[in-house]
Amino acid sequence: MAEVKKRRLGSSKICSKNQITIPVEAMRNAGLGVGDRVTARSDGAGQVILEREPDVVAELAGALTGVYEQGELDDLRAEWD
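-> structure tokens emitted (81 positions)
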């Protein structure tokens, strides 16, 4: 019978590639999900802070609404042909 690994709930071990698995509960509580980009920084001995990187595309989406007249971009694109 396979031996079950003994772990403390919510803990992880750093592997030889300096990687860890973040426990699901910690991810949920932090509001982080699959595909999020994070930045890691030290906050003293034994502490690492992960912060979600801002989504620049989402922040700028719609920022130029109303800058161009209706159909103006289509006319400019037609000049390329």
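The mean pLDDT is 88.
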